[in-house]
Amino acid sequence: MRFVRNLISALVFSLVPPVLFYRLFSGEGPLPVLLVWVAGAAVCLVLSSDIGRKSPTQPSVRPYIQRLVKVATATILGVGALVILIQVNVARRSLAEAWLVLAREGRAFGFFSFFATEIYSLFHLGVLAFILSQREASIPRRIVSGFSALVAVNALCAGIISGNQWFLTLAGAGAVCVFLFQGSENIVRRIEASIFPTLLAGLLALSIAALGGAGISIISVRFWPDFTPIINSIAPTLPLLRDVPGYGYTIGATNMPRSVFLTERTLYRAFGQPNTRYYLKESTLGRWTGTSWEDDLSSGLEIPVQKEGEWEGRDRWERENTLSLILAEDFFPLFPLPSDARAVRLYGREAGDFTAFENRGIRFSPGAERGLTAEILVGRTEATPAADTHRGGNDHVDPALSALATELRAKTESDEEYLQAILAHLGTGFTYAQEAGRLPVDADPVSWFLFESRTGFCLYYASAFVLLARSEGIPARLAEGYIVDMDEWGGAEISGLQAHAWPEVWNGREWNIYEPTPPYAGGRQQNEAEEIQGDEVSDKAEEHTNRRVQVLAAAIVASAFLVLFVRTVFVTPDTRLKRRARRLVKQAASRGVLRPDKTGWLAWEKGACSVFTGKKAERAIETARKMILFLYSKR
Known about the structure:
By secondary structure, this protein is of the alpha+beta class. 50% of the residues lie in helices and 15% in strands. The chain is built from 19 helices and 19 strands. The chain has helices at residues 2-24, 31-51, 62-90, 93-104, 111-133, 139-162, 165-181, 187-210, 228-234, 399-409, 415-426, 445-453, 458-471, 526-537, 544-570, 573-589, 596-599, 601-611, 614-634, and strands at residues 247-248, 261-262, 266-271, 277-288, 293-295, 305-307, 322-327, 331-335, 337-338, 341-347, 353-357, 361-369, 373-378, 431-432, 455-456, 476-485, 491-495, 499-506, 511-513. The strands form 5 sheets. A 6-stranded mixed sheet has the order 6-10-13-7-3-17, with no helix packed on it. Helix 12 links the parallel strand 14 (431-432) and strand 15. The chain is elongated and about 105 Å long.
């Protein structure tokens, strides 16, 4: 009856708070799966605690059942904790910042609320495990320590989410009470036992402070190995995979990644002219450093933006001159814009602070929310002229690339012929692939693409085109964003599959888009677009040594994590007692005290007290008496 009562109490304690947390923050995710895991972990914790209590029944069977239950407990908790840690590994700081802002305004929602519920559930299971571990203590001590642990965890979560220092202070007070009322009656021993966790907590606090404040920047810490490509291949629509250079929704020109893994998860829904191709730009890059591109923030035409309610109802734009984008993701920091955008109107939830420029789209701080609509008026007649950075004067260009540019230029008579010669060169003998190949250390990635691997994706084709154009004095820049083909009804969904990079060339009046990336080259349409998108996310089995090494590393880490948990549960109090006894017996024997297997533990205790002093003598007395009880219980 006591076991049933304890089990029901544990289930209520572990399940109700996560459900309330999930509802409070309007979570969206597989809550039943999470609750099944929490319930399984709670049942195992109760079984593990109850079966370890002294019982005269089935003495020959109970040790095996106890070990089985402990292994099951460690496995369930370990797997769940590992899944949560992997999600922390792939999540990004911008998601945490956007969610925290909404949570503090009472408007949080989406998958990140579910992700926060997962972490909160793990904390609550930790409190449950702590309470069950105190079952041998007196009832008042158990009540105070358990309640203090509960207050500490919930106040910590509330403090991180709300940013209120009083909650964090309350969490600290709860932790102090836990320390004062749990475990040994001896205050000195509790202090000794708390030294290591206190130092660990201090280091964690300092790390959080150095990263910019509790609860915000800690999620941006990158762990090794990076699980992003593995999780993207297993669950490409996981909402935490977003705005990651080379993953999710962006190509990552500022990082020049060797490979891209683009998600199928819808980011925007677009409505425009039927059967029309749009190049939607989220950034332009003007300077080549020799290894990567730098954002072009020094120039760009500012685009006027009106919020809902800032224009007259009769002032409507004609549909044939507009493109509408609706954010489908929970949060995102920007909206891309076509190069000929004239003005933008925003509909929906308050967008917060933002800027809008033709060369870097609309950028929100901290981020736009799901449902925000941008209605874009297209057809601008003016353009930002080329800047000095677009002429390549400060680029770090490989001499071999310059020599190739000279060779191609010698065969042409005009700039346009030269640009077409670049397209023809990149269209012959080069292979489009998601993997750009293994790049030597400190090598120029564009030169490596042009002269060694001759394999790459859109970023490498576009970069090579821009640098070859600049080498012969033609102003050019790299653009990054999305290439979108509208269907016959004028609709499209934009995901990572549409992420693209392309070159733009200044002709003295406007920026012209060139397309060197096969199979987009030559103005080909939807079927080739689907082919390239498929190449970017399919055939994962052929993605080669790097992916297999990452999977192997992840498997090793996961195995080590589970082995550590299993090993920990097998180190029982009896095992620790015997280890300490062996150590003390060896130390006493070196000073002439006969071993207890020859004299017995009572005689050994007297001999040890004659050679040990202070705390070591007290420890020898305690160990001898516990060993007597242990040996007696085994008879």
